[in-house]
Amino acid sequence: MAKILCVLYDDPITGYPKSYARADVPKIDHYPGGQTAPTPKQIDFTPGELLGSVSGELGLRKYLEGLGHTLVVTSDKEGEDSVFERELPDAEIVISQPFWPAYLTPERIAKAKQLKLAVTAGIGSDHVDLEAAIKNGITVAEVTYSNSISVSEHVVMMILSLVRNYIPSYQWVIKGGWNIADCVERSYDLEAMHVGTVAAGRIGLAVLRRLKPFDVKLHYFDQHRLPESVENELGLTYHPSVEDMVKVCDVVTINAPLHPGTLDLFNDELISKMKRGAYLVNTARGKICNRDAVVRALESGQLAGYAGDVWFPQPAPKDHPWRTMPHHGMTPHISGTSLSAQARYAAGTREILECWFEERPIREEYLIVDGGKLAGTGAHSYTVSK
Q1: What is the pLDDT of residue 381?
Q2: Which domains does the chain have, with CATH numbers?
Q3: Does the annotation place 333 within a ligand binding site?
Q4: Which residue, of 209, 255, 290, 334, is most buried by count of CB atoms within 10 Å of its CB?
Q5: Long-range contacts of 85-90 (CB under 8 A, 24+ apart)
Q6: What confidence tens digit (pLDDT) does each residue in 41-97 have?
Q7: Quick one: average pLDDT of 341-346?
Q8: Which of 296, 307, 314, 354 is nearest to 330 (CA)?
Q9: Helix, strand, coil proportions of the chain in percent (round to 5)?
Q10: Is 88 annotated as a binding residue?
C-alpha cells in the first residue's frame, strides 16, 4: 500500500466554510481546442467546495483510504522539522499545488527513496527539480489546462486594474474620501494600447482572445509560432524575440513556464528596453522577473505598474519588497485556484491517481517527466540541461 503526501494551503482564518456564496459552479466538459476536462471514474466532492486547503484534501481521502493507502495532508512544508520533511522519506506519491508548492529539490528527492510520482494539482511543475526527477526515474504529472482560463481572466483583471488605477481609487473609498483627481492622475484607457504576451500557449492565447474586444493592438513572442489563421483572426503581430516585442508594448504580460531560458528574464537590462511607463503583469512564475529590478523600475518610473500573483519563495516572506513597492497590484498566488478551477484540478488529480494505481497510461497532455525524460506537455514547455 502506498503513502501519499499531499501539501495544501491553510484553511481560511475563520475556519473551513460551512456555506458558499454560490450554490454551484458551471460544468465544463472541454477546453478551447477540444481537450476534454478531467474524466475520473468518480469524485467524492461537490464542485464549488474549497478543495485546495488542508481540510478540503482535494476530495481524495475517501478514495485513497478505500484502496488501503495512507493519505497525509499538511500545509507545513518548510524546514527540516516540517511535517513535509518528516513524512517525505517513505512517501511514494507527493501532491502539491503551484500556489503553495512543496519544493522537490535535488536534496529532498535524494531523501525520498520511495518517491515514484509527483503530481501538480494545477499547472506548472517547476517546483519539482525536473533534472533530478529524470535522473531518479520519477514521473511528474500535472492537470494541464485545468486552470489556464482562470489565470487568463486574472491577467485581464490585473491589466485593467493597473491601467485604470483601480486599487488606489478603491482605497480612497475605504478611507472615506472622494478624491477624484488623486484617483485619475494615473488612470488611462486601455483602448488603442499595444499589449504583448511572452508566450502564447494555453494561457497566453486565452489572454489575447479576451483582450481583442478592447480594441488594443496585440503582440506576442513564443518559441512556437501560432498558425497564420490565428494571427489573422486576432490581428496579432509576431516578434522573433522578447526584446523586439517589449520595445513597442505599453503592457506586457508574462505567460511562460519557468525554465533555464526564462529564469531572471526580466532583469534591469530587459526592463530598460521597455517603453517608459509600461505596465508589466506576471502570473507565470516569480523568478522570471528579477525581484530588485522590478522594484527599481517602479521607483524610477521606468515601469508605471507591476502586478502578478507569483512570488519567490511562496509563500512570500513578510519583508518581501514586492509587498511595499510603489504602484503594484500584487495578490497571493490565487489566479489559478478559484473554486471553479479547484473542481477541475481536483478531478484531474483523481484521474491521474486512478491511472497510476490501475497501471493505465496517464494522459499525454498531463505528463511532464516520464520514463527518464521530458514527456508530453513537459517536452513542449520545458528545457533541461544536457
Answers
A1: 84
A2: 3-146+337-376 (3.40.50.720), 187-326 (3.40.50.720)
A3: yes
A4: 255
A5: 87/3, 87/5, 88/5, 88/112, 88/115, 89/113, 89/114, 90/3, 90/114
A6: 999 999 999 999 999 999 999 999 999 999 999 999 999 999 999 999 999 999 999
A7: 98
A8: 307
A9: 35, 15, 50
A10: no
